[in-house]
Amino acid sequence: MSDLSGQQDYYAQIGFSERIGYGERPAVLVIDMCRGITERGNKMFIDMDAHIPRIQAILDAARAIDAPVVFTTVAYHPDLADAAYFGKKAVLVQGLLHGAEAVDIDPRLPVLDRDHLIVKKFPSAFYGTHLQSMLTALKVDTTIVVGNSTSGCVRATACDAISGGFRPVVPADCVADRAPLSHQVNLFDIDSKYADVVDSAEVVRYLKGLNSPARVRAAG
Questions:
Q1: What is the pLDDT of residue 1?
Q2: What's the pTM value of the predicted model, to 2 decimals?
Q3: Containing domain of residue 37, as a range?
Q4: Which end of the chain is more exposed for a tag (fewer CB within 10 A), N or C?
Q5: Mean per-residue pLDDT for 96-123?
Q6: Distance of alpha carbon 200 from alpha carbon 173, whole angstroms
Q7: pLDDT over 50 (residue 219)
């Protein structure tokens, strides 16, 4: 998979990688930006220092138009029964216990009172949570997925988002992984099958455009 550009051409020829585009009612899903992952010294560490300002820019633009912002974290009971076999396969998640600082959202991305916070147990933000029903009730049609990890929880969330009837958008410069190869290959695969992979500047322009005077006049 060293020549991704060649793979992209091949996938386009056989019918992958079409654009879904944006809808009119977005929500931002901030996946697992918790201290146990974003802070150095932890086994689960993923370096997201450069990503956090870009994520914040998307959150600012979303909140400015009252679009929902949903944070997720992972937290388990001390006996790890709720981690099930995932906790046995990915042993490093066993340190994410209820009440531990590791499950708190990174303070560089503060969760506001208006935001939502979902505690999940497995990779997808949708699996075993109320996210699907909440977004449906809010009439959301577009899910902007940021956070970590590209190959795990971001990918699983994007896959479930498109399966659940939403338009998934993944800003490539707002997601990260522990291994560069895993990040690169999974971004390629996400863009091919599950979501539109774009850059954060495009997402910010889209969100600001939803609050433009022309759109307000059209909606009126």
A1: 40
A2: 0.92
A3: 24-211
A4: C
A5: 98
A6: 6
A7: no
